[in-house]
């Protein structure tokens, strides 16, 4: 066997260190330092060396995350320290009673007793054992005393260090934590499963647990899983730290992801305030929690309190309302959206889910009805998480009544009686009535008048409903023919209101090509795509006549979007609508935008606070004209944040992520220079 020289060994050490650091920064800190291409190039270099010198392969090498061969089953693992359950508190009175009980047992002042609080993640609990800084084994919780050995699967999670960071790692470390799946990862996984005819998971918790128990680690590797540490079960030599929160800080230094919402508070009021604040933030976290975990922070006091049969006396779980509930499906109605999409909506016996009374839930489409096997009269499980619309996730078929009825998907539009079409390769069925369908007409007009489209002030949803029902408006062009005298005859429309609306309609005629394209309501064409189309073609005529291959050449426009745009402009009634709008006086400055310099191409900017010299929409338009994307939230990908007066949480987030922040004066100076071509980005 050929022996590696010192330079080769040094190269292996360097590559492993760089890859380990890249994994830590990306999956733990959310601060990537390497591009995907740079990471892949280094990984391939390391793989090539290890292939040539197999004696250099070690279990903690980044190349070993790819997973082992499929397992025949999972070995049983006896936990050295049992993974016990926690007692639960279901209301604030029970939580306050826990604090009082602990303080009385310890004979200390309850209001000065420190507690470490953090979200109770809703995933799959696991235990990781490290010896001499290297991952030795990993196991599921199981029954608390015996779990399943899933080491090969856990090694594929890049948020789990194969080797602890730094040099001062302990001889033995056992870390407990939760493997979770984010809402975004869960929805993407289920969407892929629907497209491929695979298994659709009911919720992120089940998806995380099922992904961990795959016999083939290669499958686990493809799942969007994340490990969050929450407890040190064993540590040798004994820790110098005296509190749980200090141990968590040590875990973060060793390379583990810990929850950023962890806080140390004092007394019952501090604990209650934390739980209230966490409950308010619950829907915006991006992952499921089912409560908060409250622990006495002092480790000596934890030992003094000890355990009862199945739970520690020094900790409790405060449970939030469940995000799933069961109820009866009483009926199914079919709604028609702006693009003609037919959506089945379940009408339910009202039930409380996550503290909100739910009586309607989406069934998505005909395929989902078939997949669920749902019938009218069934008992169904409803899920509501984050800002996701409540949906039916499964059917309790063993509770199906004898008089349950099949759900019949309509073949004609329930609003206009036009034929319902379903194209090959699409899950969604659509009404073919277009703007002639009142349901689509209303939604199309609302979209046309919306703030991000033509921004017609005073033209709200209720007024549009009235105008369509009275048959005063059939197409967007009809809006610009409305007269103040006639509008004033409508209920709750005084003379002044009608005059203001007509003035707003006249003002809206001066727009931009990007806004006009977005306002047309072409399928799959959002603000960013409309801006790209306007920037690429420069004028409406060129866009309307563009063949599909020319449309596919536009940034972020793929074959599906190109087909939708091409089809839209080939429809005679759509061309008639556009001609009528132009005849009403809609106009914008046409120019070959593609010829402009694009110094901000590829950059993402965020505007926050109030700008004095322009509106935020104007600032956004000028940035987009320079090639930038303008986002509504700050992330690690943000290039710069423009902070106006009263900038809030976005400014704070930018500081945490080290994103550049500039004031309005600097922003205006840079804009002027970029637009004159005087400076690069």
From TrEMBL:
<dbReference type="InterPro" id="IPR004150">
    <property type="entry name" value="NAD_DNA_ligase_OB"/>
</dbReference>
<dbReference type="Pfam" id="PF01653">
    <property type="entry name" value="DNA_ligase_aden"/>
</dbReference>
<dbReference type="InterPro" id="IPR001679">
    <property type="entry name" value="DNA_ligase"/>
</dbReference>
<feature type="binding site">
    <location>
        <begin position="36"/>
        <end position="40"/>
    </location>
    <ligand>
        <name>NAD(+)</name>
    </ligand>
</feature>
<dbReference type="GO" id="GO:0003677">
    <property type="term" value="F:DNA binding"/>
</dbReference>
<keyword id="KW-0436">Ligase</keyword>
<dbReference type="InterPro" id="IPR001357">
    <property type="entry name" value="BRCT_dom"/>
</dbReference>
<feature type="binding site">
    <location>
        <begin position="85"/>
        <end position="86"/>
    </location>
    <ligand>
        <name>NAD(+)</name>
    </ligand>
</feature>
<keyword id="KW-0464">Manganese</keyword>
<dbReference type="InterPro" id="IPR041663">
    <property type="entry name" value="DisA/LigA_HHH"/>
</dbReference>
<comment type="function">
    <text>DNA ligase that catalyzes the formation of phosphodiester linkages between 5'-phosphoryl and 3'-hydroxyl groups in double-stranded DNA using NAD as a coenzyme and as the energy source for the reaction. It is essential for DNA replication and repair of damaged DNA.</text>
</comment>
<dbReference type="InterPro" id="IPR013839">
    <property type="entry name" value="DNAligase_adenylation"/>
</dbReference>
<feature type="binding site">
    <location>
        <position position="416"/>
    </location>
    <ligand>
        <name>Zn(2+)</name>
    </ligand>
</feature>
<keyword id="KW-0460">Magnesium</keyword>
<dbReference type="Pfam" id="PF03119">
    <property type="entry name" value="DNA_ligase_ZBD"/>
</dbReference>
<dbReference type="InterPro" id="IPR012340">
    <property type="entry name" value="NA-bd_OB-fold"/>
</dbReference>
<comment type="similarity">
    <text>Belongs to the NAD-dependent DNA ligase family. LigA subfamily.</text>
</comment>
<dbReference type="Pfam" id="PF00533">
    <property type="entry name" value="BRCT"/>
</dbReference>
<dbReference type="InterPro" id="IPR004149">
    <property type="entry name" value="Znf_DNAligase_C4"/>
</dbReference>
<dbReference type="InterPro" id="IPR010994">
    <property type="entry name" value="RuvA_2-like"/>
</dbReference>
<dbReference type="InterPro" id="IPR013840">
    <property type="entry name" value="DNAligase_N"/>
</dbReference>
<dbReference type="GO" id="GO:0046872">
    <property type="term" value="F:metal ion binding"/>
</dbReference>
<dbReference type="Pfam" id="PF12826">
    <property type="entry name" value="HHH_2"/>
</dbReference>
<dbReference type="InterPro" id="IPR003583">
    <property type="entry name" value="Hlx-hairpin-Hlx_DNA-bd_motif"/>
</dbReference>
<dbReference type="InterPro" id="IPR036420">
    <property type="entry name" value="BRCT_dom_sf"/>
</dbReference>
<feature type="binding site">
    <location>
        <position position="437"/>
    </location>
    <ligand>
        <name>Zn(2+)</name>
    </ligand>
</feature>
<dbReference type="Pfam" id="PF14520">
    <property type="entry name" value="HHH_5"/>
</dbReference>
<feature type="binding site">
    <location>
        <position position="319"/>
    </location>
    <ligand>
        <name>NAD(+)</name>
    </ligand>
</feature>
<feature type="active site" description="N6-AMP-lysine intermediate">
    <location>
        <position position="120"/>
    </location>
</feature>
<dbReference type="Pfam" id="PF03120">
    <property type="entry name" value="OB_DNA_ligase"/>
</dbReference>
<dbReference type="InterPro" id="IPR033136">
    <property type="entry name" value="DNA_ligase_CS"/>
</dbReference>
<keyword id="KW-0235">DNA replication</keyword>
<keyword id="KW-0479">Metal-binding</keyword>
<dbReference type="GO" id="GO:0006281">
    <property type="term" value="P:DNA repair"/>
</dbReference>
<feature type="binding site">
    <location>
        <position position="141"/>
    </location>
    <ligand>
        <name>NAD(+)</name>
    </ligand>
</feature>
<feature type="binding site">
    <location>
        <position position="295"/>
    </location>
    <ligand>
        <name>NAD(+)</name>
    </ligand>
</feature>
<protein>
    <recommendedName>
        <fullName>DNA ligase</fullName>
        <ecNumber>6.5.1.2</ecNumber>
    </recommendedName>
</protein>
<dbReference type="GO" id="GO:0006260">
    <property type="term" value="P:DNA replication"/>
</dbReference>
<keyword id="KW-0520">NAD</keyword>
<keyword id="KW-0862">Zinc</keyword>
<feature type="binding site">
    <location>
        <position position="413"/>
    </location>
    <ligand>
        <name>Zn(2+)</name>
    </ligand>
</feature>
<keyword id="KW-0227">DNA damage</keyword>
């Amino acid at each position: 066997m050929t022996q590696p020289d010192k330079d080769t060994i040094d190269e292996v050490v360097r590559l492993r260190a760089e890859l380990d650091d890249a994994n830590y920064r990306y999956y733990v800190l959310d601060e990537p330092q390497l591009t995907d291409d740079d990471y892949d190039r280094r990984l391939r270099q390391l793989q090539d060396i290890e292939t040539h010198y197999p004696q250099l392969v070690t279990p903690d090498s980044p190349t070993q995350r790819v997973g082992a061969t499929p397992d025949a089953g999972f070995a049983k693992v006896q936990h050295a320290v049992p993974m016990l359950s926690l007692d639960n508190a279901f209301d604030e009175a029970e939580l306050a009673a826990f604090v009082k009980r602990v303080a009385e047992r310890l004979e200390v002042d309850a209001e000065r007793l420190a507690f470490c609080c953090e979200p109770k993640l809703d995933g799959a609990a696991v235990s990781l054992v490290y010896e001499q800084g290297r991952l030795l084994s990993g196991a599921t919780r199981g029954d608390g005393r015996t779990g399943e050995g899933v080491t090969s699967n856990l090694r594929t999670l890049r948020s789990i260090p194969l080797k602890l960071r730094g040099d001062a790692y302990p001889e033995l470390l056992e870390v407990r934590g939760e493997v979770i799946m984010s809402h975004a990862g869960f929805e993407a996984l289920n969407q892929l499963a629907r497209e491929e005819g695979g298994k659709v998971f009911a919720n992120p918790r089940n998806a995380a647990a099922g992904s961990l128990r795959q016999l083939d680690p290669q499958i686990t590797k493809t799942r969007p899983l994340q490990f969050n540490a929450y407890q040190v079960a064993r540590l040798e030599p004994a820790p110098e730290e005296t509190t749980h929160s200090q141990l968590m800080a040590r875990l973060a230094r060793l390379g583990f992801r810990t929850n950023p919402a962890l806080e140390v508070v004092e007394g019952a009021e501090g604990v209650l305030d934390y739980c209230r604040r966490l409950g308010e933030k619950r829907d915006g976290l991006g992952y499921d929690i089912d409560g908060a975990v409250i622990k006495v922070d002092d480790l000596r006091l934890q030992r003094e309190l000890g355990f009862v049969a199945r739970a520690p006396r020094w900790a409790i779980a405060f449970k939030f309302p469940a995000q799933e509930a069961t109820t009866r499906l009483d009926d199914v109605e079919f709604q028609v959206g702006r693009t003609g999409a037919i959506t089945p909506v379940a009408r339910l016996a009202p039930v409380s889910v996550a503290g909100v009374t739910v009586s309607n839930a989406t069934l998505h489409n005909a395929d989902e009805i078939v997949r669920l096997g749902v019938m009218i009269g069934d008992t169904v499980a409803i899920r509501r998480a984050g800002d996701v619309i409540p949906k039916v996730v499964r059917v309790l078929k063993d509770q199906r009544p004898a008089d349950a009825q099949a759900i019949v998907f309509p073949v004609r539009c329930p609003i206009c009686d036009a034929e319902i079409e379903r194209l090959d390769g699409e899950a969604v069925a659509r009404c073919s009535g277009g703007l002639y369908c009142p349901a689509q007409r209303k939604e199309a007009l609302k979209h046309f008048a919306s703030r991000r489209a033509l921004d017609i002030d005073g033209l709200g949803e209720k007024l549009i409903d009235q105008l369509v029902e009275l048959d005063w408006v059939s197409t967007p062009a009809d809006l610009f023919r409305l007269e103040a005298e006639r509008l004033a005859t409508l209920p709750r429309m005084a003379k002044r209101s009608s005059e203001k609306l007509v003035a707003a309609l006249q003002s809206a005629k001066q727009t931009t090509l990007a806004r006009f394209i977005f306002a047309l309501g072409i399928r799959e064409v959002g603000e960013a795509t409309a801006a790209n189309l306007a920037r690429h073609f420069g004028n409406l005529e060129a866009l309307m006549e563009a063949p599909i291959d020319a449309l596919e050449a536009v940034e972020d426009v793929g074959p599906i979007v190109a087909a939708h745009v091409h089809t839209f402009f080939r429809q005679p009634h759509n061309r008639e609508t556009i001609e009528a709008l132009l005849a009403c006086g809609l106009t914008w400055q046409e120019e070959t935008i593609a010829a402009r310099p694009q110094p901000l191409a590829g950059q993402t900017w965020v505007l926050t606070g109030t700008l004095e010299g322009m509106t935020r929409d104007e600032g956004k338009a000028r940035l987009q004209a320079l090639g930038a994307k303008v986002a509504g939230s700050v992330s690690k990908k943000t290039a710069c944040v423009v902070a106006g007066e009263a900038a809030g949480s976005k400014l704070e987030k930018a500081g945490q992520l080290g994103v550049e922040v500039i004031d309005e004066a600097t922003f205006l100076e840079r804009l002027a220079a970029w637009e004159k071509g005087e400076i690069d980005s």
